[in-house]
Amino acid sequence: MALQFDIENKEKKIMNMICKQMDYTSFPLLKPLWVKLVENNGSNSTYFSHLFKTFTFEVHESLLQQKIASGCEVIFFVLLSKEGGEPGGFCAVNCNRELGEGEIEMLYVDERLRGSGYGKLLMSKALAYFDENGISNLKLCVAFGNDKAIGFYQKFGFYPFTIDMLRK
């Protein structure tokens, strides 16, 4: 089911976006946004921006395939422009129904669409998906230094539990 939302972007043009649930096979469509997500994480990283430059789409795609092979479901909620179907953002989630565990794997909204409620829409769709499937043990990871994301996720009840540290 697609939800349609009309917004006014920072350039004062109307952006018509729909949110669609898609399966893993849609991931290649999201490569340009994934690249921007990694660049954004790298620019926000306090200590390890250089590591983000080593991340590749193909490696991440392989990691998602491994999760699927181990019994996880991988689902994408994707913002698509009503005209042309260009992706404007996405939220990737995975869950293991047997264990009742879920993860918000990635969330990214194009800079031109930020501040218009699309991040909230994507999070709401992800959380509703978990609720509908009886998944209550949820987690997500945020790159250290991405304080805006931490504040955003706290609005949905996510708080820091541990901090992974790497030796530089």
Automatic annotation (TrEMBL):
Listed SUPFAM superfamilies: Acyl-CoA N-acyltransferases (Nat)
InterPro entries, sorted: Acyl_CoA_acyltransferase, GNAT_dom
PANTHER family registered for this protein in UniProt: GNAT-FAMILY ACETYLTRANSFERASE (PTHR43415:SF3), SPERMIDINE N(1)-ACETYLTRANSFERASE (PTHR43415)
Segments forming domain N-acetyltransferase: 35-168
Xref: Gene3D superfamilies: 3.40.630.30
Bilayer-spanning residue ranges: none
Stretches assigned to coiled coil: none
Annotated Pfam families: Acetyltransf_1
The protein, known as: Acetyltransferase (GNAT) family protein
PROSITE patterns: GNAT
Keywords of the record: Transferase
Molecular function as annotated in GO: acyltransferase activity, transferring groups other than amino-acyl groups
